[in-house]
């Protein structure tokens, strides 16, 4: 759980801080007629740096698991304006003089490239990037306007996006510029009463990690040692920046913004329903309605399948956002009870 600082607008308005970190993974919410304590793997208060979140959330371990061939996912959840995109990507306008603000994505890329150099293994990296906007899956890396792609299902692959473009990369600069260009310029965003840069779509950036370890064997008749073919591993590292849940009354949305908000809330409701059922099942053969939305279909393997998943719940400490904050914390508590089979 990450608690963002109070904004200037909230401070000027006289909003009270109702969320407090008690340390040891505990967060306390206190307000009139509301008093609750929640426990999580880690809690980062308003003073926590981007580096502290990266190291303390277990993100570095996820990178290592992806290299080892596992399917790893990290997704940020919370109401609109709670700091999800900042946590994953850092500020929208970045410069080389601001490395301290880099988000989980860029730090993971750097860690991935660093590990590939030190592992002594042949590592091939590629990236694909899509968004779900108004229940349409769109490729953010395709040339021209984002094109809508069909979502398919197969017994071997599960749910997958057909004809999705994948781009190879070998440097931190290449993947970062790709991320910023697609994420900041092509992804659907709008301004409303609660957020000047509100994401109007769910974005999924997937890094495909193909590692092939090379071992040496003696050549015939006492010659020089040479390389031998050996097993390869294919892992993935998926970053999911969920659009924020919002109340149309609070955001002042109307027209197209209102339609977007309804689609966002509907898909988040489907995600919450799946998480609730996964948390309850405990080994029972319960039907999980992944097909209720495009988002839950694409996250099916991450939520209750063979993947390893980290959820970062972002919340506001403002008294005005108390209802949404409690909703996010209950949501995250249910997600923590879900067990996958990596």
From TrEMBL:
- In its keyword annotation, does this UniProt entry include Nucleotidyltransferase? no
Example of a GO biological process term = microtubule-based movement
Q: Where in the cell is it found?
A: Cytoplasm, Cytoskeleton
Q: Where does ATP bind?
A: 78-85
What the entry lists under InterPro entries is as follows: Kinesin-like_fam, Kinesin_motor_CS, Kinesin_motor_dom, Kinesin_motor_dom_sf, P-loop_NTPase
Could you tell me the keywords of this UniProt record? ATP-binding, Cytoplasm, Cytoskeleton, Microtubule, Motor protein, Nucleotide-binding
Q: Name one GO molecular function term.
A: ATP binding
Q: Name one GO cellular component term.
A: microtubule associated complex
A Pfam family found in this protein is Kinesin
Question: Nucleotide-binding: is it a keyword of this entry?
Answer: yes
| Protein name as catalogued | Kinesin-like protein
């Amino acid at each position: 759980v990450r608690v963002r600082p109070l904004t200037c607008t909230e401070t000027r308005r006289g909003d009270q801080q109702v969320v407090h970190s008690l340390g040891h993974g505990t967060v306390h919410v206190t307000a009139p007629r509301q008093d609750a304590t929640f426990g999580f793997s880690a809690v980062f208060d308003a003073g926590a740096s981007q580096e502290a979140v990266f190291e303390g959330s277990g993100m570095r371990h996820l990178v290592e698991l992806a290299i080892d061939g596992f399917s790893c996912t990290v997704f940020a959840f919370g109401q609109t304006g709670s700091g999800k995109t900042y946590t994953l990507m850092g500020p929208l306008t970045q410069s080389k003089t601001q490395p301290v603000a880099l988000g989980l994505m860029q730090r993971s890329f750097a860690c991935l490239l660093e590990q590939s150099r030190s592992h002594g293994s042949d590592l091939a990296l590629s990236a694909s990037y899509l968004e779900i906007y108004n229940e349409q899956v769109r490729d953010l890396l395709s040339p021209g306007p984002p094109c809508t792609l069909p979502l398919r299902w197969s017994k071997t692959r599960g749910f997958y996006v057909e004809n999705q473009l994948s781009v190879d990369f070998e440097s931190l600069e290449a993947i970062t510029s790709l991320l910023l260009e697609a994420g900041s310029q092509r992804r659907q965003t709008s301004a409303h009463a609660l957020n000047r840069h509100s994401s109007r779509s769910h974005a999924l950036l997937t890094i495909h990690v193909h590692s092939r370890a090379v071992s040496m064997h003696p050549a015939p008749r006492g010659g020089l040692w040479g390389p031998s073919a050996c097993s390869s591993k294919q892992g993935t590292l998926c970053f999911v920046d969920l659009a924020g849940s919002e109340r149309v009354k609070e955001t002042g949305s109307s027209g197209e913004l209102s339609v977007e908000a309804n689609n966002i809330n509907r898909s988040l409701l489907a995600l919450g329903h799946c998480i609730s059922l996964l948390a309850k099942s405990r080994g029972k053969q319960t039907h999980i309605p992944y097909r209720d939305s495009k988002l839950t279909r694409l996250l099916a393997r991450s939520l209750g399948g063979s993947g390893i998943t980290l959820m970062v719940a972002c919340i506001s400490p403002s008294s005005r956002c108390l209802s949404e904050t409690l909703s996010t914390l209950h949501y995250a508590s249910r997600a923590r009870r879900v067990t996958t089979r990596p």
